[in-house]
Structures are given as structure tokens and as C-alpha cells.
Fold this sequence. Notes:
11 strands
Amino acid sequence: xxxxxxxxxxxxxxxxxxxxxxxxxxxxxxxxxxxxxxxxxxxxxxxxxxxxxxxxxxxxxxxxxxxxxxxxxxxxxxxxxxxxxxxxxxxxxxxxxxxxxxxxxxxxxxxxxxxxxxxxxxxxxxxxxxxxxxxxxxxxxxxxxxxxxxxxxxxxxxxxxxxxxxxxxxxxxxxxxxxxxxxxxxxxxxxxxxxxxxxxxxxxxxxxxxxxxxxxxxxxxxxxxxxxxxxxxxxxxxxxxxxxxxxxxxxxxxxxxxxxxxxxxxxxxxxxxxxxxxxxxxxxxxxxxxxxxxxxxxxxxxxxxxxxxxxxxxxxxxxxxxxxxxxxxxxxxxxxxxxxxxxxxxxxxxxxxxxxxx
Length: 358
């Protein structure tokens, strides 16, 4: 959503315009070295996942205020982004990266991808999401990966909606769940991590075995799960329980409707955080830092919900009404230290594959 996430960005939603009159996105004036030898605006190369989106007027104002020119590239989803950043550490793809999430942050930090930078604009509410004590990565947005349900299905079948991970093992929910493969999907990996956090390293494989025995379906991508197999939303499938995001129900509410047809199961959520960082060896580290400051500005933080379908890390930002009504975050989501994820990610994915896929 995201990573966040490329999956969430596939949702269809109208972008909300943000009034910029009289606003300054960057508190400091541009450095004297912000132009090149020809006196042209200096280039800031931004490497992102393929779901990055911000309102164009915000990007234009950043360029006008700083005299930097932004150049974007996107090598793939969050996992592909980290892989490419690691492979090109000696010759970085850009100056700054956005879209590394907490499931891959530890790996990127361990490989020396980023130079530490602590923005003076980092809000207090973002501090709990820091990936390490050195400030290698700056939290920009957050969200929850959760199972979602098609509420009408459960009404039609006079069946109570599940609430917890344990509920999914009950016979009445057999053949109703579709999730994504953690080896190919960032929400799939987030959900795997949720089960490790819930059942421990000695119990999560048994949980997945029971889930598989209860008719679990696994697909490769979020779009396959949500748009094809899910019985809610635009999907025409026969699975009323799907892996998605806590924000998904807000985008299913039609005009003038007062209830969402889908609902996130907040007892199943894994907290996802997306970061930005200055790439080690960047040609323009000052420009990279300015871009990170930009991402933390009030205007960009307010733009994130409708553009990237994630929550801003600044908890003082007013959210869209639909989010307040239909997209609450979990009070107590599953979490895990990025370093622990980095130590075991590949091992857990292989064990999951052996258990579920065979």
C-alpha cells in the first residue's frame, strides 16, 4: 500500500487537491550550491517503488522553492526496490529513495545502502517508527495490512464474521480465505510476519498448515486476490475473506452511502511503515535531504492518504472524512523489529513455502 505498497495503489480513487496559496513546503532557503556549473537547477534523482504518487502541484512548488529538479525512477515494488538499491550500492541509482518498508528496512541498512540523516521536520509522532538509532531511514507514512471481509456474504449466509487469526481455522470458514504469496507480494510478507508475531517461531508453521488444510487459497499478487478472487469490491470471486489493507473499506463506499460493504479485521493486522533515505554515495546529498524534508511537510503529509492510500506519520494532519469513518487503524497491530525480520526473512519465506505450497 505498502506498501505500503504497489497493491494499494491499484485502487481507484479521485485525487484530492490541496490548497497551496501562501504555503511554504520547505522551511529553509535553497543552498548556494543548488545549481550546476551552467547555472541550471541541480538534479535530485528519486528512486521509488512503482506506487509512489504525489500531487503534481506539490512537486512543482518544491522545485520552484528549492531550484532543484526532481527526476523519478521506479524499479518495481518495495521488494524489488530494495534489491536494486543493494545491487547498486557502489553506483547508486539516485540520491534519495522512498518506499523501503519495515519488512525490508533492516536488510537495506545492513547492506549500507543509506547515509544517516535526521530531518529537523521529523514529527514526534514518527519517532516510534524509526528503523534504527542512527537515523538511517526517515518514516514517512504508515498503514496496516489486514484481512478484509465481504460483509454481504456473511449476512446472506447467516454467518458471523471472523475477528481473529484463530477464527480462520474454524470449519465454517473453510474455503473462504484468499491471501498472497509472501515470496512475491509485500502484503503477503506482512501477513506472514503477523502470524510469526502472533504464534512465535515455534507455532506459526503449524498455524499455516491448519489454514492450508482449511481450504486456504494463495495467489501471487494483491490485484489477483482483491480484484479476482474476492467476492466483495469489483471482484467476482467466491472468497469473502481477502488479504488487503485497513484503508481498503474507505474506497468501497459509494457516494451518499453511510456504510462500507467491506470491513477490515483489525485483529489480524500487521503494521507497515514506509521510509525515505539518503543514498550512500549520492551525487546530491543536500538535495536528497531537502526532498526528505519535503516529504515531512504538512502539505505532503496531507496529500499522502488520497495519493498513496497510507496514513501520514504526522498524527496532527487532518484525515479525509472517509478514513475517519471507514478506515481506522488497529489499536494493537502486530509488529516486529526490522532487524529481527532481516535476520529471518528468507528463512521464514522458505519455511512458509515448504509448509503451504509444498
